[in-house]
């Protein structure tokens, strides 16, 4: 009987999981912040404004100089109408289809 008890103990010791606490440290994730110009370019291209018009009118540089908000897509989209009104003329006409 003793050998059965010994065998059982060895089997349990090999297969058991000890309840030890494991501490996992998370490293902070750095988010790559896109430039305002790149965000605007994506929005304009999705709205159907051609790359030729974007570069010809230098829209990205003008917008980056004008814009003073956060670098998020939502904030850039919300500011496009104000940008068009502030710039007027050709930029307003060519970006007319962007809402």
Strand and helix layout:
Elements: H1 2-15, H2 36-46, H3 51-56, H4 59-66, H5 73-87, H6 89-94
Round the Cα radius of gyration to an integer and report it: 30 Å
The arrangement of helices and strands along the chain is: HHHHHH
Number of extended strands: 0
SS-derived structural category: mainly alpha
Biggest sheet descriptor: none
pLDDT < 50 stretches: none
| Proportion of helical residues | 55-70%
Strand content: under 5%
Shape: rod-shaped
Tally of separate helices: 6
| Average pLDDT | 84
Distance between the termini: 84 Å
Summarize the structure.
By secondary structure, this protein is mainly α. The protein has six helices and no strands.
Summary keywords:
single chain; 99 residues; mainly alpha; rod-shaped
Would you mind describing this structure in some detail?
- With 99 residues, the chain is an all-alpha fold.
- It has a domain at 36-94.
- Helix content is 61%, strand content 0%.
- It is rod-shaped and about 100 Å long.
């Amino acid at each position: 009987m003793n050998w059965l008890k010994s065998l059982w103990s060895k089997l349990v010791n090999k297969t058991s999981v000890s309840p030890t606490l494991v501490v996992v440290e998370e490293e902070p994730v750095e988010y790559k912040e896109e430039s305002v110009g790149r965000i605007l370019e994506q929005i304009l291209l999705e709205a159907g404004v051609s790359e030729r018009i974007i570069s010809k009118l230098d829209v990205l540089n003008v917008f980056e100089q004008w814009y003073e908000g956060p670098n998020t897509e939502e904030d850039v989209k919300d500011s496009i109408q104000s940008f068009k009104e502030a710039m007027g003329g050709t930029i307003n006409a060519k970006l007319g289809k962007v809402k």
